[in-house]
Amino acid sequence: MTTTSTAGGALADRLTELGRLRELAQEGPDPKATERQHAKGKLTARERIELLLDKGSFTEIEQLRRHRAQGFGLEAKKPYTDGVITGWGTVEGRTVFVYAHDFRIFGGALGEAHATKIHKIMDMAIAAGAPLVSLNDGAGARIQEGVSALAGYGGIFQRNTRASGVIPQISVMLGPCAGGAAYSPALTDFVFMVRETSQMFITGPDVVKAVTGEEITQNGLGGADVHAGVSGVSHFVYDDEETCLAEVRYLLSMLPQNNRDLPPVMPSSDPADRPGDRLLDLVPADGNRSYDVREVIEELVDDSDYMEVHAAWAPNLVCAFARLDGHVVGIVANQPAAMAGVLDIKASEKGARFVQFCDAFNIPIITLVDVPGFLPGVDQEHDGIIRRGAKLLYAYCNATVPRISVVLRKAYGGAYIVMDSRSIGADISLAWPTNEIAVMGAEGAANVVFRREIAAADDPEAMRAQKIQEYREELVHPYYAAERGLVDDVIDPRETRQVLCRSVAMLAAKHADLPRRKHGNPPQ
């Protein structure tokens, strides 16, 4: 009896000690650090995890992990978690793995133990076949640990690459991330940033000034709007952390768990056969008039709801996730409201990356075509429009997911071929009666083909107008491509949603095999 009581008392003491240690790990070593974090307008790592995951679903691992480093005073500072919180939970009931830098501890800097925790959670995510979300708020490598910290980054990069195309990887930038800390997000599928509080750069403003003499702020060098609109590093930007994390949840709700799953299908109250009468007014028949293709997308998708990717970068091409009759699709659309919808280097790279992601994760691709061609210019040619434009062509040709294209209006030259034409493997190719599929516009073509006749005419302008009309009637009329089997059907614009919904459903079981190979060698 006495022995049992003693054992019970010892266990109670141990449980009390465990509770104290867990409380210490959750609160952090310095209560004032939480106040400083909040004073900057930033949430703590645990507060962020609570917003990201379903309430009460988070399971933490290695909470009591501490570093073993010596020197530079580190042996006297050995906080639990070592500055990173790792574990898993659920988003709308589906498993998601997460790690979050705790800026209150060593500024979120990465050391050996810190890196090992991240390696473990990444390995678990890959093995379990579930998305990985990183909440980044770290100061880079822990200088006091030297090369051990740098090697820790190498392990993260290697796992980012191994997970690429296997599980969705999302990086959320919630503080300053410099040096090696910026490269892991660059390897992931999507990067979210928050204005004013998150920055990314390889070398900070002080180093830039010392080396080049240029003076610039952290936000001016690597802030959210810079990376969203100039560099293209960031896919999504928001004004506050709460909205940002809510949008991460929304994106996860449309993605499959891994490359072996299909995206989740949601019941839709928006009828699949809903007519799109408004489409008749949205797209002008005159190819020289502009319009916003996002309004067309709103009219086609369920409940007018879509999530645009890279909205501020390369705006002449719109990439978005949406649903058609409850099925997730990726939409690629030329944007006549920006640069007349022409394809350039940035748009090609943006579209290629998006198409590759959709293909990797079994998301059907809808392409809305209204493209006058590739952007001409010395800068474009010298900066590699040939090889970089070929990225979009390669991505489409390599994609085996269901692919449906709709020519809304113009489709000229090589850009028409690149925008998922029938000749490069589109499963279904459709066109509106306003389509103009040709090598070039009738005006330019007439000037080339009938140059001599126009020059020799008594009234060159009248002859030019006549030849333009002849060319248009012969080769640019809406049914020329359909007569030759290059489009499957010319449809009433009002029926586009209905046809797309039926086509996506029909292609749901599509299976296509690529030639056996280690991997392709896409243009760079």
UniProtKB/TrEMBL annotation:
Cellular component per GO, a single term: acetyl-CoA carboxylase complex
Pfam families the UniProt entry points to: Carboxyl_trans
UniProtKB keywords: Ligase, Transferase
Organism: Streptomyces venezuelae (strain ATCC 10712 / CBS 650.69 / DSM 40230 / JCM 4526 / NBRC 13096 / PD 04745)
Enzyme class: ligase
Keyword flag Ribosomal protein: no
Domain CoA carboxyltransferase N-terminal: 11-267
Classification via InterPro entries: AccD/PCCB, AcCoA_carboxyl_beta, ClpP/crotonase-like_dom_sf, COA_CT_C, COA_CT_N
The name this protein goes by in its record: Acetyl-coenzyme A carboxyl transferase alpha chain or Acetyl-coenzyme A carboxyl transferase beta chain Propionyl-CoA carboxylase beta chain
Matching PROSITE patterns: COA_CT_CTER (PS50989), COA_CT_NTER (PS50980)
EC number, UniProt record: 6.4.1.2
GO molecular function terms listed in the Swiss-Prot or TrEMBL record: acetyl-CoA carboxylase activity; propionyl-CoA carboxylase activity; transferase activity
Metal-binding listed as a keyword: no
Domain CoA carboxyltransferase C-terminal: start-end pairs: 271-520
